[in-house]
Amino acid sequence: MTLDHHETPHTLRGIQEMLGLSRSAITGLIASGFVNPRRGPRNTYRFSFRDVVLLRTAHDLQQADIPTRKILRALQRLKATLPEELPLTGLRITAVGNAIAVRDRESQWEAETGQLLMDFDVAATRGSVAFVDRRRRAAAPPCRRTSSSRVRKRSNPPT
User: Fold this and answer.
1) Per-residue confidence (pLDDT) for residue 52, from 0 to 100
2) Predicted confidence band at 72 (pLDDT cuts at 50, 70, 90)?
C-alpha cells in the first residue's frame, strides 16, 4: 500500500516542534487510540490534519497546566462514552480551572466525571436600563405617630 504524503504531511518531529508536545505525550495518545497516524517511509509516523487538531487540543490542555495523565484519562473516558460516529474533533475540549470541559452543540460537561457544567457567564446586551420608581405616592398626608408608637386620630377642627 502506497502512502500519499499529501494526506499525512506531519511527522512526529514536526508535531513536536509545531506544538511543543513531548514525545511521550504524543505516543501516549497514539497508544490510547486518540490519534491514528499512518506509517511512512522507514516506519515513521505520519499525522493527518485531524490528528494535528487532536494533538493541538492536548497541547492547549497542557498549556493550561493540566497534567498529561489527567489529559489521557479524560480523553480515554470520552472515547469510551461517545458514540463511534461522533469524533473527538467534533467537540470543543478546553480547560476550565483544573478540570477538562467538553462542549458540544447542546451542553457542556466535565470530561473525567461526566458531570454537567452550567454556564453562568453574563453577556452584555444591547439596549438601555430604566429604573422604576416604586415609592408610594400617598394621596393624603401620612398619619403622625406619637412616641409610644400609637397612631393619633385626626380630629376635625372646631367650627
Assistant:
1) 87
2) confident
Q: How many helices (H) and strands (E) does the chain have?
A: 4, 6
Whole-prediction pTM: 0.59
Q: Which residues are registered as beta bridge partners of 23?
A: none
Q: Which helix (H) or strand (E) holds 26?
A: helix 23-31
Read out DSSP for 88-117? GGGSEEEEETTEEEEE-SS-EEETTT--B-
Half-sphere exposure of 139 (CA within 13 A, CB side): 0
> β-pairing, 92-96 with 99-103?
antiparallel
Sorted by sequence, the CB contacts under 8 Å of residue 95 that are 6+ apart come out as: 60, 61, 64, 65, 66, 101
100, burial (CB in 10 Å: exposed 0-12, middle 13-18, buried 19+)? buried
Place of cell 457542556: 108
Q: Residue 74 to residues 32, 84, 86: CA-CA distances in angstroms? A: 11, 17, 16
Q: Which three cell numbers stand for residue 142?
A: 401620612
Q: pLDDT of 13-55, one tens digit each?
A: 999 998 888 888 888 888 888 888 999 888 889 998 888 888 8
